[in-house]
Amino acid sequence: MSELNNFRAVGLFDLVSAPITPIGAFDAEQFKKDVQPLLDKGSSFIAIDLTGIDFLYSDACSAFKIVRQELAEKNGAFGVLTDHDIVVDCLHKAGLDKSLLIFRKEADMLSFSIKEDSLKNEEPAPELSAEVKSENRRPSGSMQSIRRRVTGRFTKSFNAIHKDNSIKGMDNPFKEEKQKSSAGIWIVLALLVVAGVIAYMTLV
């Protein structure tokens, strides 16, 4: 089980030390062997420490793709820790710079881990009950309350107008009109009676 000693925890990540060939190149085959026990035990965040390595061959990029795909299926992520721009350029040419995480310092890995952990620990928004949902679907209730407030406001303003008792005839402006119309009817009736009397006397 010596393979398990080839990594250390950095935040959420199991950071694997880069295996090196006798000529100083990255050993892709040994990397696959080193990372397999981590995948078997269920690690979701794995990174490879490429500090000090200044070039990657295509077999290394192919191995990274395989590990990244397996971690993606677990909703995890694969990261690369490097201090060389040439390594970043190699990942870019292999089309990996957008699909895996590239860190320049371990502090960046810790910062990412803190953010990721806080997102996982966020409490989901409370589920609304069926009664509350039904109330939210009926905006008419809120409109009715608005109508009540508007009605009350205008009613108060109209009621606030004080009646000036010094102005006569303003209590009921239709009362005077009614009296004039009654007097006119009596005059018309009187004229009809007089005309009838005159006509009767003329005939007799």
Automatic annotation (TrEMBL):
Residue ranges of every copy of the STAS domain listed in the record: 22-108
SUPFAM superfamilies in alphabetical order: SpoIIaa-like
Keyword set, alphabetical order: Membrane, Transmembrane, Transmembrane helix
A family per Pfam: STAS
Residue ranges the record marks as coiled coil: none
Superkingdom in the source lineage: Bacteria
Transmembrane annotation, as ranges: 183-203
Keyword Magnesium on entry: no
Disordered: region residues: 123-144
Protein name: Anti-anti-sigma regulatory factor
